[in-house]
Amino acid sequence: MNAPVKTDNAELIVPEGVYAETVLSVTHFTDRLFRFRMTRPAGFRFRSGEFAMIGLMVEGKPIYRAYSIASPAWDEELEFFSIKVPDGPLTQHLQKIQAGDKVLMRKKPTGTLVLDALTPGKRLYMFSTGTGIAPFASLIRDPETYEKFEEVILTHTCREIAELQYGFDLVNEIKADEMLSEIVGDKLRHYATVTREDYPFMGRITDLMESGKLYTDLGVPALDPAVDRGMICGSTAMLKDTKALLEKAGLTEGANNKPAEFVIERAFVG
Questions:
Q1: Is residue 40 included in any domain, yes or no?
Q2: Residue 163 main-chain phi, psi, to 5 deg
Q3: How many Cβ atoms from other residues are within 10 Å of residue 167's Cβ?
Q4: Does residue 270 belong to any structural domain of this protein?
């Protein structure tokens, strides 16, 4: 059974068991990337790092895709970071949303990029490419992350410099937030690299790990399963290559039901 929801423009038919939330703001970074914030349903609970199925009604039918929730669990609003795909079933429509529009969201979040899926450690690496930074946007703004780890290293690799902007905005927002800045202090390290333009830090993260440049640049020792933990979110190839390097260093992959030294989110790869 479908329930009608009133909007300013028309009556939106919302499938049963689905939230219809209002877009509050939209920020476009490049012709391929944008972030948006929307209202959070009163009863919607999630763990920082999880994803939800969000969607739109297209020609009378709901179309959903998995999106990491980029806002932390304590936030009163929900934030998402998205690519723009001209012929993408959902993104070709989602990229056109404006404040006041309605976005659908299924009620059950899930995901493996959560603190509970890791065993205790000292240093947490968050390896991301492109929009794979989204779950980490949630986690780096969650005080629990800094209660559990002494050092948090966010790596973000994109093709072009402009695509790194969201990550820099996040770090600046943390610094500007009185409560968060006090909690985070100097525990958060942000390591951004590009692959197709001249930039002080260039190359794929896996190449920088293999060469040791990542660790030299950061002034930290190579991966050690006794102290280091990892989370990975990115393309299929990036997941495979980063996982191999972590396992080579002696780290074991974990899951919600079996915490270990690193976790991977596979929901977004085809």
A1: yes
A2: -75, -10
A3: 22
A4: no
Last residue of a domain, one of 57, 82, 106: 106
Question: What distances in angstroms separate CA 188 from CA 138, 144, 168, 184, 264, one per listed residue?
Answer: 13, 13, 12, 6, 20
List pLDDT tens digits, range 40-90: 999 999 999 999 999 999 988 999 999 999 999 999 999 999 999 999 999
Specify whether 192 is located in the same domain as 156: yes
Write out pLDDT tens, residues 138-193. Answer: 999 999 999 999 999 999 999 999 999 999 999 999 999 999 999 999 999 999 99
Q: Is residue 269 part of a domain?
A: no
CA–CA distance, 207 with 92 (Å, rounded to integer): 33
H runs (alpha helix) in 28-130? 91-94
Domain check: are 92 and 123 in the same one? Answer: no
For residue 129, count other CB atoms closer than 10 A to its CB: 25
DSSP for residue 7: -
Contact assessment for residue 205 and residue 157, using Cβ atoms and an 8 Å cutoff: yes
* Counted domains in the chain: 2
- The whole domain housing 166 covers 115-264
SS3 for 125-139, per residue?
EEEEEHHHHHHHHHH
Q: Evaluate whether residue 17 is within a structural domain.
A: yes
Q: Is 170 exposed, middle or buried (0-12, 13-18, 19+ CB in 10 A)?
A: buried
Helical residues (DSSP H) of 34-164, grouped into ranges: 91-94, 134-139, 143-148
